């Protein structure tokens, strides 16, 4: 995806995303003022959205320094492109799509774990969830708190984490994820399922060292 | 006379193979296919698996609310970049700290 691709097609808003991204008081006025060049208004938009954007970057990248860099990039991109926001979707949805695209582009450029996204999407056999044909473990219902889930998500292999965050947390549809990750819809569905299976494993049998490492990396 | 279609034997492997599509179809892992449904009703392992996966998907919304905050340096760096960039607008970066 090139920079042009980041100008973000304003896809028709999906009800789910609007539900998850309800309008924020004062946001519409701030957007219009920022479009007209009001820097105070832009700083209000930053204040309103910095935590959500940063948290998204942190979850996708698992690294504070990179997450801060990408937060900066996302808002600079917003600064340059806010004039093209036409309000066809919720502003937060638009901004999050912009952020996701930037993070993915960053990961592609890094080449590392994303020499190809397919590679990241397909973790090694060791990381793959075990299939469950008869284990007798306590049910999870009622046992997960936010901290435990956050830690478990942080310790997922990058490809699983990416699809889980985009679908289950951010509310993107499989076809949108497939477009963003340049994979098939079936691949997105399959990776989400494996991510949930892996989370189930991690939540039922936490690996102390892995959890600790992930937490350290997240809060570093 | 009613003709009862013989129930196809569904193994746990068969059932779990279908799960990604069952969840993606919006049914929360609950199948419409009578053979798969019969397996789900009678198999404790697959029943627990479906309940757990539904629960994990539901709990993911716990993570929607942001809990992390970028350091103040991020806004400072954004301001510095905004100041140094020529734009087609008339932006004048604010002088105060963003809360």
Overall outline of chain A: elongated
Q: What is the share of helical residues of chain A?
A: 55-70%
Order of helices and strands of chain B: HHHH
Mean pLDDT of chain B: 80
Distance between the termini of chain B: 75 Å
The assigned structural class of chain B equals mainly alpha
- Give helix % range of chain B: 40-55%
Instruction: Tell me the distance between the termini of chain A.
Output: 30 Å
Query: For the record, what CATH class of the largest domain in chain A applies?
Result: Mainly Alpha
Q: Give the integer mean of the pLDDT values of chain A.
A: 77
> Helical region count of chain B?
4
The count of β-strands of chain A is 0
- Specify Rg of chain B, calculated over alpha carbons: 27 Å
List unreliable stretches of 5+ residues of chain B: none
The CATH architecture of the largest domain in chain A is Orthogonal Bundle
- DSSP summary, beta strand count of chain B: 0
| Largest sheet entry of chain A | none
Compute the CA-based radius of gyration of chain A.
Answer: 18 Å
Structural summary, described in words:
- The complex is a heterodimer of chains A (220) and B (99).
- With 220 residues, chain A is mainly α.
- In chain A, 65% of the residues lie in helices and 0% in strands.
- Chain A has two domains: 9-110, RNA polymerase sigma factor, region 2, helix turn helix motif (Rna Polymerase Sigma Factor, Chain: A), CATH 1.10.1740; 117-129 and 142-219, Arc Repressor Mutant, subunit A (Orthogonal Bundle), CATH 1.10.10.10.
- Chain B has 99 residues and is mostly helical.
- Chain B has a domain at 12-63.
- The interface between A and B is large, with 57 and 47 residues.
């Amino acid at each position: 995806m090139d920079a042009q691709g980041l100008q973000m097609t304003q896809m028709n808003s999906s009800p789910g995303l609007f539900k998850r991204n309800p309008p924020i008081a004062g946001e519409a006025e701030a957007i219009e003022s920022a479009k007209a060049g009001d820097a105070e208004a832009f700083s209000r938009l930053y204040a309103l959205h910095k935590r959500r954007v940063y948290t998204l970057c942190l979850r996708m990248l698992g690294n504070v320094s990179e997450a801060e860099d990408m937060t900066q990039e996302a808002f600079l991109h917003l600064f340059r492109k806010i004039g093209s926001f036409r309000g066809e979707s919720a502003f937060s949805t638009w901004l999050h799509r912009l952020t996701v695209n930037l993070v993915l582009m960053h990961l592609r450029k890094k080449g590392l774990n994303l020499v190809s996204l397919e590679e990241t999407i397909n973790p090694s056999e060791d990381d793959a969830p075990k299939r469950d044909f008869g284990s007798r473990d306590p049910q999870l219902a009622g046992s997960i708190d936010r901290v435990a889930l956050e830690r478990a998500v942080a310790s997922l292999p990058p490809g699983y984490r990416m699809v889980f965050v985009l679908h289950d947390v951010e509310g993107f549809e499989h076809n949108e994820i497939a477009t963003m990750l340049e994979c098939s819809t079936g691949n997105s569905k399959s990776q989400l399922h494996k991510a949930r299976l892996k989370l189930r494993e991690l939540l039922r049998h936490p690996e102390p060292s892995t959890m600790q490492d992930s937490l350290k990396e997240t809060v570093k | 006379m009613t003709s009862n279609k013989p129930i196809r034997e569904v193994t746990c492997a068969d059932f779990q193979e279908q799960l990604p599509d069952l969840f993606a179809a919006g049914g929360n892992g609950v199948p419409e296919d009578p053979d798969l449904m019969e397996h789900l009703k009678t198999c404790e392992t697959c029943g627990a698996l479906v309940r757990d996966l539904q629960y994990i998907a539901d709990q993911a919304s716990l993570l929607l609310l942001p809990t992390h905050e970028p350091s103040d340096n991020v806004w400072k760096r954004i301001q510095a970049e905004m100041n140094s960039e020529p734009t087609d607008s008339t932006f004048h970066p604010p002088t105060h700290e963003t809360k």
